[in-house]
Amino acid sequence: MAEEKKRTRRANGESAIYLGKDGRWHARVPMGYKDDGTPYRRHLTRPTRKELVDEVRRLEKQRDEGSARQPGKPWTVAKWLEHWVENIAKPVVSENTYDGYEVAVRVHLVPGIGKHRIDRLEPEHLESLYRRMQSAGSKAGTAHQAHRTARTALGEAVRRGHAAKNAAALAKPPRMEEDETEVEPYSVDEVQSLLLEVNKRRNSARWMLALALGLRQGETLGLRWSDVDLDNEYLKLRRNRLRPKYEHGCGEAAPCGRKAGYCPARVQVRRETKNTKSRAGRRAVPLPGPLVVMLRSHREAQARERAAAGNLWAESEYVFTKPLGGPLSPNTDYHDWKRLLEGAGVRDGRLHDARHTAGTVLMLLGVPDRVIDQIMGWEPGGAARMRARYLHVTDPMLKEAARKIERAIWGAPETPAVDKDQDNEV
Predict the structure, then answer these.
(1) Least confidently predicted of 17-31, 155-169, 179-193, 216-230
(2) pTM (predicted TM-score)
């Protein structure tokens, strides 16, 4: 026993194992260094030497793999998520991405799983949260947003050694129902009805850019006249219009009692636009002849509005502005879209459905995939996946495929679609 108690000089980084005066076996395992540069060792104790050696080996393996918990008080999930979203994610992601993260953290993740220690969080804790969210009325898409946020935040915690595993990467998010993701593009007849209504309205070219070319809302509202070359019939997409974000300007001494966006002295705290982040998003898009005519007419109408407004005009280079100048708000633009649908007698739909419509029309016209990708702004690596999501097979396309199969297998003569339908009716 005296021999076992005897300590020998150890090499740097080697764990110390010894029998203590309390009759238990103890170990000091080097784990690296603290923030101040001093060595950090973990103390372990077990009743037998074998148990202790097994635990030391397990801890040394975690240390060598970089998955061991770092020194200091363990993070709670709430503390880590709040630190991550403000200090790690916010400086490097876009404003819109940050907004999504912040809402998921504040509204769902911190109240739902925030009290757990980050190194003891299990996939079942997250799966239970998703079920509770849906029971409370949240859509599966909202639970998916919380899941993606947790997976990203916890992945960073694992990389930094605050947890040994990413519980969100192991958790199963709820199934997305088909009716939440299915989109029905507008038909050619519906697009023509919208075109008739568009011509009666201000900023008419704005809507045809969406329906004909599939431009995103942010891309359209961020367009400046320097991006538009009407002589050569194309435009360049370089930036996106961001949703405004406001803070109160009324002061704590005399609060207005309203939400920040409705404060009489509100202060804009977000930039108007941001440059398109992907290379595919920065692209040139051809303009059909009728759209060139619409844009020329729109530029003339804008000049008349500027002259009529006089000193009240808010000068800017934007193609689409408010009646007194200045960039259009995405929220105002959204409500204008809803009024356009109602005025045209066309079924309700999201503004983004116009983008699905444009992509499907390009496919119907037989435009090559590479050109569709350029117009729509899809990255080469993910273009096939985006085409599967955005380009919809319509009934006429299915009927034409059936006729081609009929001609190939049965050798049926080519007959016009109208005659064939009439024969069927008979």
Answers:
(1) 179-193
(2) 0.60
